[in-house]
Amino acid sequence: MSAETRAEIAGLGIAAARDAMRGGGLSPVELTEACLAEAEAAAPLNAWVHLTPEIARDEAARAADRMAAGDAPAMCGIPIGIKDLFCTEGVPSQAASRILQGFRPPYESTVTAQLRGQGAVMLGKLNMDEFAMGSSNETSVYGPAINPWRATGETRALTPGGSSGGSAAAVAAGSCLGATGTDTGGSIRQPAAFAGIVGLKPTYGRCSRWGIVAFASSLDQAGPMTRDVRDAAIMLGAMAGHDPRDSTSADLPVPDYEAALQQGVRGKRIGIPAEYRMEGMPEEIGALWAQGAEWLRAAGAEVVEVSLPHTRYALPAYYVIAPAEASSNLARYDGVRYGHRATLKAGEGIHEMYARTRAEGFGAEVQRRVMLGAYVLSAGYYDAYYKRAQKVRRLIARDFETVFAAGVDALLTPATPSAAFGLGDMAEADPVQMYLNDVFTVTVNLAGLPAISVPAGLDGRGLPLGLQLIGQPWGEGPLLALARSVEEAAQFVSKPEKWW
Length: 500
Description:
CATH superfamily of the domain at 3-262: Amidase signature (AS) domain
Radius of gyration: 22 Å
Strand content: 5-15%
CATH topology of the domain at 3-262: Amidase signature (AS) enzymes
Structural class: alpha/beta
Shape: globular
CATH architecture of the domain at 3-262: Alpha-Beta Complex
Largest sheet: 11 strands, mixed
Number of helices: 17
Number of strands: 11
Order of helices and strands: HHHEHEHEHEHEEHHEHEHHHHEHHEEH
Helix content: 25-40%
């Protein structure tokens, strides 16, 4: 197989590859081999951290047998990447942290079990920010993942976004047809926008969190990252569903999301939140947002101005609640049962072992958030910070409820405040600058809503920009139909020029 043929095969979308395999023009084994070769060739991107070629080839062979027997679900034979936050049985699952070095789970997360149970082929594990804490994939113990996109005429390395940066880079580079991501404050949608792909954050509870290393339990949600909206619909259908092992998993039927793409947008009311017009927002972002509204009008939707008055409090509330939950969730990592354990000096005891293990195992950003979370939960500060942030969260959710109750079907906003920035641009000395990347996305997590980022254009330097659509609870089907309409109008077909 020539390099050109290999890249062409690996560059297929999920729907196209599914149809080609069902028609007999392509086999799961051929598709898997092409993707494995592309993943190895993409080593300079540092997106893949644990390739599993033996597992992939075995699963591809079994997928071929299923197809021959007439048992071929939509994801059967589709090569995918798994974010390192998902536990995969017998395969390293480190959450990109030194403290979980050597950890090979004896169990499989529900989401990956469902995907692989439907015949999806796991190519390996993907890079991410440590414990999903970051917006640039620079906090990873594996080192940063690199965006396959480069600004026109430049060779400078750009971030693929975070925390699901490896997933975004791998899909955009054509080394897998789709990837799992998780979204706590924008960690699917922001990297999708930076890499020119589609990223869907479902309603909280739509996909099980069982077997996913926890960051902030009331905010985390798994979702698909794919090349187009149809592929996101197909992949979400395989990922979603009730799980009795997860108390936050919703016991609701999973619709046919691919069929929902035919719903259209005529007659829908789309809200434009006034509060998202941030001071200092780049003109290119504002122009693309206005263009997105025109595309929806042209498709038959009514576009109206709406107000979400508590939006400005979202970032402060999020960066109280998320670290508080993180400090509790990460308390379990102590070096006693698994992962990294510090070496003790003579005369030191268990308390020194705990302290040194956590100091050595956690990176600077994780330590910062754990300490912040412990502070806002401490006696004397709980009411002033954490309890107040939860009240603000309720007000933010009520803003959305009010808008939807007034007849608005979905909201249109920018996905990010900028295109991908350079690695190292956001100095560690000023973490607030990094946190501001979540300005358009955190409200969705605080309210538990579904949202999707769709690539919609290029900025003046030739880098992708995304638009975000926010839907009603459990309304992933209508949301995907709206996203499909934007996608068709945008006609975004640009791909990164291969330099790796």
